[in-house]
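I need you to check the entry underneath: sequence plus fold tokens. Let me know what the token row says about the fold.

>
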Amino acid sequence: MAFSDRLRQAVDDYVAADVVTDELREATLQKVLTALNAKEIELLDIVVHLEKVMCDASNPTGRRHAIQFLAFCLRDIVELKLNFKHVEVFAKFFQNKLSDWQCVEGAVAGILVLFQRQAALIRTLKVDTEEGEGEPMALHLARTMLKEVNVPSHTQGVRKSVLDTLLLLSNEWREELTMLGPELGDGISAAIEEERDPRNLLISFTLVKKVLGDFPAACASRETVQSLFETLSSYFPITFQPPKGDKVGITGDDLRQALSQAFCSSQRLAELVIPFLLDASKDIEADVDATVAQAMQTLCFCLQNFGATAAQKHLKHILETCRDQVCRTKTTCGAEFCKAVTESLKVSLQGVPAGLHPHWLAKDVVPQLQEMADDASKGRMSLASEGARQLLLSAAAAHPIVYESVWSAVMKAFLEGKEGEEAFFSIDALEFMVELLQRQQGVFTAKQLQPALKGALETMRTILPQSEEQLHPLVASVELVKRLARLSVASEALQAWQMALLGAAGGPWSSWATAWQEHLSSKPASDPCVTALVQAVCEIMPREIDQAFSLAERLLKVSSTSAEWLPLAMPQLLAHTALSLARAELKGEGRENRQNLGQALLLRASEIFRQHGASGHFEILASLADALDLPTDEGTRWVAAQIATALGLPSSVPEIAEGLTTDFDGGLKSPSVDTVLHRAQAARRFLRMLCRHLPEDQARGVQRRLLESIALSSFNVLANCTALLPGILPEACAKSWNFCQRTMPAVCRCASDADPDLAESTCAEAIALEALEALVENAPVDEVPMLLENFRDTFGQLLRGSAASARQGRGAALCWASATSALLRRSGAQQQAAAFLEALLNALDQEAPVGPFVPLAFRVLAPVKVEAAKGARAKLPPLALQQLSRTVLPSLLSRAKALESQPWARRAALESAVALLAGLSPEVASTDCSEELRFCTLTSLKRLKEEAEASVFGAQVLQLLVRAIQKKQPWVEDDLHSVVLPICDLCSSHRTPLVRLGCFQVLIALIQQAFGHLAPYKKQIEAGCKRGVEDRCREVRLLAVAALNAWHCVGSQ
């Protein structure tokens, strides 16, 4: 084995270079490592060859390169066989070079390699000291490194090597490092000082966490702890944002998390960290919101790790600070302060037994709570009131003991009244009291609740229908009384509500009830006051059985036409009253009287149901479902059986959904799809609740009657009955699968628009698709293969290219997608779902009738939801959608880019990809699918200019673009020309108002984020906005004005 002249020359060129480039390093290392791995030379040959230059004091650059090259060889050689003598020589050699500033980088890299690859041998080595005792080699190297290397004076790479080495030692050589004692803490403190690189900061924060948390206190003196804290606090707050095109992958959240962990790594830091963060929350400088929010988030994290003792010690200071900031300033970080209050109290009370009130609670917490309650009682006109109320609610949520203290403080501050008069709550306090009761923890005694209930009743008595302003307070007062009545005696409240609804019968509430009855008599059932009173009566009645008997008799006598709200709301009162009577524990004559009254009540409810038809039909079903939404017992079983008898079930099952797809008033105009789905949901829920409580044979009879109706019906009856199908699943699938299977052809016919009587009925299509998904999803496991085989026989040919009409192709695509969606939801059906997806994708590769409608299929898998307020079909679980994007999205993009494909196929693949991306969460789409998002968005913008009819596709494209801007995707600024010009054109030229609206949303987001880059497009943007101001759609005009204002306002700033 010889060191060839070629290798010598390569090494010499490397060492002699003024600057070692990446290309030179890689080329030289490749040659030498190839020879080393092939055993052509030994590592010793390289050491001998470099000996002269490594010891040449007149050649600092050569020394640096030589040491680095030796370390690289040790690091990258495949098989490093060294004995203990070799390791000792290398270790001492690198240790000696630590004092040479030029050689520090290579020396540290060499030591790190030895610790990584020769740890076992290093553990056997000792170094003689002046005291004559040998110390472990690892300890000696660590001490020398901390002493000799002035870490802050070196470049980022050297600093990172030192920090990596120290981190490795702290993880795997803890015993040896512990022997350093205070030198360890001092060395770490010096090493991380003035660090600014995010890569090194992550390691620095971790080192502080380890030295303070994992090592004995002797390794960090009090002065060192103070020094480490000052270093850590100098980085707060962290506002780091990755630069454009960042490839390191470190985010601001990573740094903030690491800093928080370092802050709370030791109890010794609690005395320093908690006051510091509280002071930081009072920062009045420019970026106050970000600083305050970060301070409170970090405080909560640290308190959870410091534990109860530290939290108790600083609790008073925390509460005072939060109260000052929330009640005395106009901070926008109230939620963060409230969370800090909750967390500090929760941590402080960890381990406190239930019912025990610690001594510090009365000293540090109760006075603060009383001051907050006094502030909260001043009313919403006071600056301190709203903030104090939020703080009290946050404190109440922390622990049952604190809730009790908050309740006492609130009662003392909020109950008002002159001497000799009943105390009451101010109207302004009603909503706050309701929120406080919503967060109730623990059990209150009647003594604690009675003053509040009396005060709430007195407040309700003062609210009269003199103006519209009094309507909202009535709703709030009823809600407050209702919540208090659940916990205490409620007869007075229930009597007052009944009188307000159905008429007065004398007594102290007579005048109040008369006023409200007259006012409500002309109101519909949807009126907030009517709804509040009816719900309150229904909820409290089971607790007051005597009142239930009197209400039952009154309901049987009252005319359903005496008030406008009665026809729709009375069935709810009738059902709840009958249920209250049925569940009462009565015997003998009382029991018989109860049953007779209950039967009469439910019979009247069924009569009212039949009288209404489509108008109010489904509101009544929803109210009956609410009444039955209880655990099954003797009372609910009896009521369910009586309702079924009164409605004529099971023979009259189709009548339950009668009028589902027709207009409320029986006119020619059909209801919207959203309205039909809302009605269907009410009918399904009623059927589900009813079957839950009926005896098994009766429930099965109802289910089979519905299944027979679906299988044998047509026209609107088929659509109406199909809408009810999900309401009897999965029970019907488990017990009557043969009947369920017979409904499949009819459901598919309805969903695929193949029934001539239901042609082009979007409502029938929507409800049938839901029914189809429910059938496939709930089919017994053993029956799934046969079900899917029948499905393939029905629609498979249309996916493979058989001749068919466009309507048939569209229907097949929708049904196929619904079945696929159901399979994706089923556990253990992934392979079957994958096969269905593959068949759908293959339809894009051939002239299949389904091909052009594949985008529609993907919108079934990932439903469109443009407005948050409007419901959409249920989406797949997030993980299923994410997995779908990983398996299907690449195939769709390859088809969208394939030049040899037909134009329609490329267009359909692109629209399908856009639909899938729109279904993903913004975080997943912008991280896992960034390149796909860029391609689809930019390509689709070009296509939108050519296809003015693509409304849903256009809305989804703009939705993706807005998400990309909000997530600060770098490609948006890189491709501004491809974004701004199409948007400025589409904002006035596209036929769909929703698309034009989306264009202005994109412009506003771009102006706010990238105004400086938009100067070249000033003319186009202003022209587009001015055309938008004259748009025929009011919403578009408003957003165009907002975009124009943003352009001028941001520009002036």
About this structure: DSSP finds 53 helices and two strands in the chain. Residues 866-872 have pLDDT under 50 and may be disordered. The longest strand covers residues 126-128.
